[in-house]
Hints:
Blueprint: E1 2-7, H1 11-22, E2 27-33, H2 36-46, E3 50-54, H3 62-70, E4 79-84, H4 92-97, E5 103-105, H5 110-121, H6 129-141, H7 157-167, H8 172-179, H9 183-197, H10 202-211
Parallel strand pairs: 1-2, 1-3, 3-4, 4-5
Helix pairs in contact: 2-3, 6-10, 7-9, 7-10, 8-9
Amino acid sequence: MIRVLLADDQVLVRAGFRALLDAQPDIEVAGEAANGEEAVALVRELAPDLVLMDIRMPLVDGLAATRRITSDPELTEVKVVMLTTFELDEYVFEALRSGASGFLVKDTEPEELVRAVRAVVGGDALLSPGVTRRLIEEFAARSKEPDGVEGLAELTEREREVMALVGIGLSNEEIARRLVVSPLTAKTHVSRTMVKLGARDRAQLVVLAYESGLVRPGWLG
């Protein structure tokens, strides 16, 4: 059973999400929070698999709450997906840097929301190539010399190559075609790279790919 915590200051939004998710045989809503402070407290109390976190909330916003959750070593298994009204929300970039596994627009189709919950808990990230491009463009706009990324020296040449391809938004299937390997082999390389770098998920691996200098803005074409 996938346990989800809903964090949104709008009661009707939470009610709609709860009705949809509780109707699924493999998903249950473990709790609800009306602000970031409540969300962090409930995550620590309930240890859900995933938090659907609104970005804009009173007292403590979703961005600050996400940082608290993802930086807590006792909560490393908890995934956070940000909820936003607009796909180009200015905070999405910072949310991904803070450890969120991706984001959903609030008017997402119901079946897409359910699919997304299952995908993130299964280890995938909600990052389309278009979102990845904008993420890298944001890095470019704030650009400075790439920082050193701990663990990068431990990667093999193939793992560095795979990390760079993840960084430009390719899926495991696309990486497999690019490198002429099986999708399972590509997935294995991605998983090993994440483990060596201590990346929570694929979204964080994208961020690290740029911060390490493996991905450059010019790659956007």
